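Archive entry. Fields below.
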Amino acid sequence: MTTSLAPAAGRAGTRPAPGPRRRRPRQARLLFLLPAALFLGVLSIYPLITLLRMAFSAVTAATLNADWAFTGLDNFTAGIQSGDTGAALSRTAVFVAVVTVLGMGLGLGGAIALRTSGRWSGALLALMVFVWALPPVVNGSVWKFLLADTGLVNTVLLATGLRDTPVPFLYDQHWALMAVAFVNSFAVIPFNALVYRAALLTIEPEVFEAAELDGAGKAQQVRHIMVPSVRGTTLVLLILTLVYGLRSFDFIYVMTYGGPGTATNTLPFLGYLQAFVRYDYGLGAATSVVAVAGVLVLAVLYARSIRNEEKHG
Amino acid sequence: MNEVKAGPVAVATKLLLTLMYGVPILWILITSVKSSAAVFDRASTFVFTPTLDAYSAAITPTLWTAMGQSATIAVGATALVLVIAVPAAYGLARTTGWLPTLGLGLLIVLQMMPQTANVIPLFQIFSSWRLLDTTASVILADAALLTPFATLLLRPFFRAVPPQLEEASSIDGAGILRTFWTVVLPVARNGLFTVGTLIFLLAWGEFLYAVNFYLTPGRYPLSALLAQQVSAFGIDWPGLMALAVLTSLPILVVFSLTYRQLKDGLTVGAVK
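PREDICTED_STRUCTURE:
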């Protein structure tokens, strides 16, 4: 489960904003924002400012609570010159692409398959939402086991003669990134399918009846009715899935811990390793700032798209 | 829509998803009742003598401590998040102008932040406040992580409360606070319930803060214990899977009690 899920809610309300007539007394309700403003100011905004300061300073375990020497862009150039930042950037791009393609594709596909009523669909949806609700450590652990040399996947591959040797899913340079990306999409598909399904259920049944009378097949109904009518949902889910992939950490930690070598060091994980394993907090902060910048771009796109939905929806 | 018949492609998709999500759950359960020897023997993949050894080895005082820690952290974080996010969501639902717009934008940005970007500065901040190695630090950090998410998810529930209800109440002489407490909150209780459940589930599974802010594993919650064991060398799989089952049991209880509301509540925002 992930926390990047729900901003979908932001675009929600169907009720129009209160009219100008009753605007004035309502502003007293701004006071309701005060506790959150104080709390997040101290524990979210201030830490982000600290992160930024660390990124431009020399901070090690020894100087963590002392005065930090300002070093300008040194941390950033060190990261780029060692090749770590660039390599992590391209790994992150591949990772996010795999998570997004699988997460969106199987999310929509699952929703289309699950919009039928019946016991199988109902039970499968409940199962998927339950797996989604499980802690990432649990899902990560079981997949680490399923993908191990003696795990179920390799046992089946060997038994059916598809492979002579076990596939090194988690300790081969190329397989590892793909395997973790697959498990990440596994964790996001249920949410995407649930949201897509709700969007599909709002299409009037008459539309499908009319299409069937006109001789449209299933594939045509998907292409010409379903996909266009969930376009707004697609945009929201696309950004959420991109962010989900970009900030992914839990599964990498559990399944590969960034390895083998550096094969699954995406930007957030590299930043974590630099800070908490190499104790170079400045370098780790600089890497994290690069990841934050990527998230900021997506956040702006997202805020725009939900504002459009609230205005024109 | 209810009469839709599943075509062959839909059946194949459902089969694939059933395998994808059913097998891992089944495999956690099966492995947790295997002996260590059976796990590494391909011949015993499906046929083996079940044993509860892994459970009896896993159920120790350490486990109960960890479960207590998980409960403290999850309940504490949920309570703190609701106390802060509920008024904020109501405020954002009922005000207009640049301030709430800025607030909404900030919340969207904050809830998308990578957790690793928070854990680095928070480690330093808690260290200078001498809060490291306390349960309070983990609860505070979890609450800060989940408050933006909770506020954004709660806001539509408050927007759906008819303003006329509040007007009627204020005509009767009730102040803003009293109206909020006696009129608005009861109407929006489904939303509170859904969001509270989600925050509990997320806080129960969170492990990055716990692993870093507790300086010794002695007071780790279950999720952190699991994360620590799975990244160790020479993993004891039956033991790990038994621990995974025990970690998931509370989730199963909460899930079965709230699935209906959860299913609707999660989609309330994303679809009109």
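CURATOR_NOTE: The radius of gyration of chain B is 23 Å.
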